Structure prediction request, 176 residues.
Amino acid sequence: MPDLSVNRRQLLKIGLLGSAVLAGGGLLSRTFTAAADGPASGFTMLRESDLPLLNRLTPLLLQGTAPEEAMPQAVQDTLVSLDLGLQHLSPALAKQVQQLFDVLSLPLTRGPLTGVWGDWSHASDDELRAFLQRWQNSSLALLRQGHASLLQMTLMAWYASPRSWAHCAYPGPPKI
Prediction:
């Protein structure tokens, strides 16, 4: 039987090699998709590759804030508001949001980080809830920050929309 033990130096070499392969693959993938993936139709900042995630995740995050029959319009309003909000971010912060969406969209990173191995459009509500809970309770601060960012961006975009105000009895901003 061969000796399969690994010493610390070998483990570090394997780890560095694996990191280099993943970083190189991610860089190549991002390079090819970033060049071809401009803003989605009707949006300025949101890209076509962002929409499957956002179209699937937004209704789950907005559950209880709008009647079920109004949810498709609520999702659309939220995405329009989110796109507008992203336009007003600093370039550095907008780039970070795009990187978050890239990590969640690329199959190479989506599966291991979220537990959703297929397309977002095919993910069940339970898989999405498990992903959100996994990130919310992660021991990695970066994943917890990603969860908070997704949640806050989505909810802020929804509550910035006048259609959301009736549900929470908000009369709107004062008229000046």
Helices lie at 8-36, 51-61, 71-87, 91-105, 107-114, 125-136, 141-159, 162-165.
